[in-house]
């Protein structure tokens, strides 16, 4: 399959890239470092360690995923190398598939390795109670990272304007991450004429809207394995905000941005 050539080329370039090695170092420092530092930050138990580590991954993985993918396709187009790539047996579709797979591997290898090492440190330092849920934590975290790589590559296919893609990547991180809670709360208050009582009894449809942010879906899925403070609002809610909807939402983030971006890229002038 021709997409394999694209993916292998990306992996070869990643091995020679200082940015990729920086990603490896940052992953080790953040995740393994947190495993060591958790003793001084919270209750020294394995479940508390996973809760704290989930906050670190929720803030860092979107940055890594967006940085890896937001200029992946536009760089090919602006440098002219896309003409050489597409002059062979590769189609635009195979270029996109190979690029996504290559960038996902570049993100997940250091992430998963760092998380496995962090988990080992956690078991040694905090015991094994709750450690059976750690593979679930690693899997959900990997899926969360893939979602942001997909979002970044989708943005990279949508235009050739560097500024728009940069602002889009930055806006995606801010809107879907740190500020999503504020945006959701303001929207809910606006729709209810700033009646503060709605915040203590959030409607089911509003919980569903909130859940569809990738970070919220991430926390909701983690809560299927162990208690996560950021997902308590979904407990006891309608059936459509159960853990399976978090999985549906993350899978949608892994695919829909690619589909939408490719719809523009498929017919765009190179």
Question: Can you walk me through this structure?
Answer:
- The longest helix is centred in the middle third of the chain and has 35 residues, at 92-126.
- With 270 residues, the chain is mainly alpha-helical.
- The protein has helices at 2-15, 18-37, 46-69, 72-79, 81-86, 92-126, 134-158, 162-176, 180-191, 204-211, 214-222, 243-265.
- It has twelve helices and no strands.
What's this, in brief?
The chain is mostly helical and 270 residues long.
Set down the secondary structure blueprint.
Blueprint (H helix, E strand, L loop, with lengths): L1 H14 L2 H20 L8 H24 L2 H8 L1 H6 L5 H35 L7 H25 L3 H15 L3 H12 L12 H8 L2 H9 L20 H23 L5
Helix pairs in contact: 1-6, 2-3, 2-6, 3-6, 3-7, 6-7, 7-11, 7-12, 11-12
Give the beta-strand count. Answer: 0
Report strand %. Answer: under 5%
Gyration radius, in Å? 20 Å
Structural class: mainly alpha
Number of helices: 12
Instruction: State the share of residues found in helices, binned by percent.
Output: over 70%
On the 0-100 scale, what is the average pLDDT?
88
Q: What is the general shape?
A: globular
Report the uncertain regions: none
Largest beta sheet, briefly?
none
Query: Separation of termini?
Result: 23 Å
Order of helices and strands: HHHHHHHHHHHH
């Amino acid at each position: 399959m021709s997409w394999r050539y694209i993916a292998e080329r990306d992996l070869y370039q990643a091995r020679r890239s200082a940015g990729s090695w920086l990603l490896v170092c940052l992953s080790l420092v953040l995740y393994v470092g947190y495993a060591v530092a958790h003793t001084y930050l919270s209750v020294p138990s394995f479940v508390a360690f996973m809760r704290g580590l989930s906050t670190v991954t929720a803030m860092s993985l979107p940055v890594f995923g967006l940085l890896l993918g937001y200029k992946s396709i536009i760089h090919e187009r602006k440098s002219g190398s896309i003409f050489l790539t597409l002059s062979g047996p590769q189609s635009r579709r195979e270029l996109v598939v190979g690029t996504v797979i290559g960038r996902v591997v570049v993100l997940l290898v250091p992430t998963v390795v760092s998380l496995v090492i962090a988990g080992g440190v956690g078991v040694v330092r905090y015991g094994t109670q709750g450690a059976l849920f750690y593979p679930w934590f690693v899997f959900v975290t990997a899926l969360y990272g893939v979602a942001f790589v997909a979002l970044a590559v989708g943005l990279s296919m949508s235009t050739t304007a560097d500024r728009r893609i940069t602002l889009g990547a930055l806006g995606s991180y801010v809107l879907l991450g740190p500020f999503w809670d504020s945006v959701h709360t303001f929207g809910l208050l606006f729709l209810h004429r700033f009646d503060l009582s709605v915040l203590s009894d959030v409607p089911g449809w509003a919980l569903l809207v909130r859940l569809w942010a990738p970070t919220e879906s991430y926390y909701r899925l983690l809560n299927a394995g162990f208690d996560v403070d950021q997902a308590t609002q979904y407990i006891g809610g309608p059936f459509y905000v159960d853990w399976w909807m978090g999985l549906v939402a993350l899978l949608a983030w892994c695919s829909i941005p690619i589909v939408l971006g490719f719809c523009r890229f498929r017919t765009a002038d190179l």
